[in-house]
Amino acid sequence: MGKNKLARFAENSTFEHVLQPSFTELVENGLALRGKWNADFFKRDAPLVLELGCGGGEYTVGLGQLQPQKNYIGVDIKGARIWRGARTAKELGLANVGFIRTHVDHILKCFGPQEVDEIWLTFSDPQIGKARKRLTSPLFLDRYKQILKPGGVIHLKTDSPLLYDYTLEQIAERKLPVHEQSANVYAELVQRVSEEEQAVLNIRTYYEQMWLAEGRTIHYVRFGVQ
Length: 226
Ligand SMILES: C[S@@+](CC[C@H](N)C(=O)[O-])C[C@H]1O[C@@H](n2cnc3c(N)ncnc32)[C@H](O)[C@@H]1O
Description:
Elements: H1 3-12, E1 18-19, H2 23-29, H3 37-42, E2 48-52, H4 58-66, E3 71-76, H5 79-92, E4 97-101, H6 107-110, E5 116-122, H7 138-147, E6 148-158, H8 161-174, E7 178-182, H9 185-192, H10 195-201, H11 206-213, E8 219-224
Parallel strand pairs: 1-4, 2-3, 2-5, 3-4, 5-6
Antiparallel strand pairs: 6-8, 7-8
The structure holds S-adenosylmethionine.
S-adenosylmethionine (SAM) is lined by residues 53-56, 76-78, 81, 103-105, 122-125, 205-208.
């Protein structure tokens, strides 16, 4: 393992806003903060927003700055990536941002019923040939439905036509409400939304910047789970 990675792992364990629960802790008891994120972690009542598979947490940190009235948690299994977001949040003094290093599969052990207002899925792995593992598969949508409040929403931003089309199929099969949808965020969607929404859509993640440099088109859909 590289020296950089070890240093990042070491620094993660010093961050009060980074949780790294063990598998046993999660599976046996669930996270102690489950159902109490606002009261015990953020210490204020505010809409709770997750970014799942957050990587370097560009949306978690970017939204944390743009919308300080909400609380944000980035979730990813890779400690070195979470470190990037956690470090930036600390440097910016963002008290409304936290991270959990864990598998998204444990999401029900981390958040209580109807605890969450919004979920962002940013450039999730399209899992070619492994539909069950996609973060918008029926398995995951059922989990999100449990933790989202009534009226809660999921945002999917992706370069992958496969993941985008697959998600639209899941939405149609379940007859879920679509609040916004575009096959081309920058050529179409940002032209017709408010300045506030433009600022949100214009946040560029690490992977997004790579895909844009390759000339890929970015897709977006925002939908409810009931
Ligand atoms: C393609 S990257 C995108 C990262 C970031 N959202 C971005 O746009 O730059 C996918 C991320 O999802 C994380 N990931 C994939 N499956 C996961 C899972 N089941 N649980 C937690 N993290 C996962 C990976 O570690 C990786 O950081």
